[in-house]
Amino acid sequence: MDSVWKKSVGLIGLLLLSTSAMTADIGACAEIESVKKRLACYDDLAGRVQEKMAEVDAKPTSTQEREAIRQEAVAVVIGEKPEADAFKIKRVYRNRLNRITYIADDGRRFKNQASGTSAFRSGDAVRLKEGFLGAKVLVRTDGLRAKVKEISPES
């Protein structure tokens, strides 16, 4: 159905753009006495219209091809989600204001964003996952979760 509309719009546009030229050509064809020659003249006019309609039909194909290429590029760029970062908690540090910081075995530090209670202990194996709206969540092997913020090692 979509191609029928495109063809009809293309044909109407073609007819509107070349109305005077077509009128002269159709008039010239109508004046031909021989039936075969007149039919050949009309076929020649129709052939020009068919060529223009073929050009109109060729554009959606190229658009579809561009869309397919774009989808392939998106798949390559985005790729698959990386696996969750897994590590062990080396130390749980509580400062004077009772704020908790987890120090990973690779040296990274994570500040607990949740309540003042410590969710994890030293030696717990955890994974760092992406949470809602880019939040970072530490998840223990038994499923216990804590929202954290990664901080610089100097803090």
Commentary on this structure:
It contains 3 helices and 6 strands. The chain is of the alpha+beta class. It has 2 domains: about 1-80, no CATH class; about 85-150. It has a 6-stranded antiparallel beta barrel with strand order 1-2-3-6-5-4. Strand 2 and strand 3 form a beta hairpin. Helix 1 (about 1-15) crosses helix 3 (about 35-80) and helix 2 (about 20-30) packs antiparallel against helix 3 (about 35-80).
Q: Return the domain count.
A: 2
Calculate the mean pLDDT score and round it. Answer: 78
Order of helices and strands: HHHEEEEEE
Order of strands, main sheet, comes to: 1-2-3-6-5-4
SS summary, helix count: 3
Silhouette: rod-shaped
Q: Name the structural class.
A: alpha+beta
Could you state the oligomeric state of the chains shown? single chain
Distance between the termini: 65 Å
**What level of helicity do the residues show?**
40-55%
Largest sheet: 6 strands, antiparallel, barrel
Give the DSSP E fraction (strand runs of 2 or more residues): 15-25%
User: How big is the Rg?
Assistant: 36 Å
Number of E-state strands: 6
What is the gist of this entry?
By secondary structure, the chain is of the alpha+beta class.
List the helices and strands and how they pair.
Blueprint (H helix, E strand, L loop, with lengths): L1 H16 L1 H12 L4 H44 L6 E10 L5 E5 L4 E4 L12 E6 L5 E5 L4 E7 L4
Antiparallel strand pairs: 1-2, 1-4, 2-3, 3-6, 4-5, 5-6
